[in-house]
Amino acid sequence: MKVITIKQPFASLIVAGLKEYEFRTWKTKYRGELLIHASKTVDKKAMKKYEKYHLEYPTGCIIAKVNLVDCIKIDEKARKMLNEKNPFVYSNIIKNTEWKGYGFQLENIKKNKANLC
Fold first, then answer.
1. What per-residue string of b and e applies to 9-38 under the rule 16 or more CB within 10 Å gives b?
2. What is the pLDDT of residue 114?
3. Closest by CA position to 12, among listed 48, 64, 52
């Protein structure tokens, strides 16, 4: 089983269904199940930004299983699509037109019900 480590609050935004794309500078051909590992590191500025969602932000553990279904290049077309989906959650990617990378599309999110943190 493949695992991807994601900083908080972004890992919890995925589990809550608020963020269906995870961004990386590299692309992947992999498609299939993927475990979401919440990093022990948190992005304090982002935590403040997303505090209105009142989510739990566990760290250092597997918090979900998802399916990675696509990997898209982040270009003008992708930024427009992300803006239509959720301009608040994707604002950093939408506004930073200099950033070049990829969005891993995640679906079928299953929260880890076992408290393994």
1. bbbbbbbbebbbbbbeeeeeeeeeebebbb
2. 66
3. 64
Residue 103: half-sphere exposure toward Cβ, Cα within 13 Å:
22
CATH superfamily of 2-111: Hypothetical protein. (2.30.130.30)
d(CA 100, CA 73): 8
Q: What is the pLDDT of residues 52-78, one digit of tens each?
A: 999 999 999 999 999 999 999 999 999
Query: Residue 35 carries which side chain, given as an amino acid letter?
Result: L
Would you state the pLDDT for residue 40? Answer: 96
Q: Is the pTM of this model over 0.85?
A: yes
Distance of CA 54 to the CA centre of its chain: 17
